[in-house]
Design a protein that fits this description.
Elements: E1 6-15, E2 21-30, E3 34-39, E4 50-58, E5 64-67, E6 77-79, E7 85-88, E8 92-100
Antiparallel strand pairs: 1-2, 3-4, 4-8, 5-7, 6-8
Length: about 100
């Protein structure tokens, strides 16, 4: 599953006029129920052959039908799988990729 987008830590402390003290700690994780990520190489030089990977993460609680497409006019696509539509059960991920230069 994808990493959390943001994790918050809440800390509270207080005291009364009678010098009674107390405190509490809580955490909250913020994430998207459905997320698409494109993973690309850090460095690419003109003429390099590289792979672009797409990850679809479903954490909605239900199976989703998704469609992944690649629109990159400057990329000469050498190989691309036929994952245009996929059923992604929850919680899980699906991946696709394309090789190009």
């Amino acid at each position: 599953m994808p990493d959390t987008l943001t994790q918050w830590r809440f800390t509270a402390s207080g005291c009364t006029l009678d010098t009674l003290v107390g405190g509490g700690l809580a955490k909250a994780v913020c994430k998207l129920p459905f997320m698409a990520r494109l993973e690309v190489p850090r460095f690419v030089v003109q003429g390099d052959e590289t792979t672009l990977a797409g990850m679809l993460h479903n954490d909605t609680g239900q199976t989703l039908q998704s469609r992944a497409t690649l629109d990159a006019p400057a990329l000469e696509v050498l190989r691309a799988p036929r994952l245009e539509q996929a059923l992604i059960p929850a919680p899980s991920s699906a991946s696709t990729g394309a090789c190009g230069r």
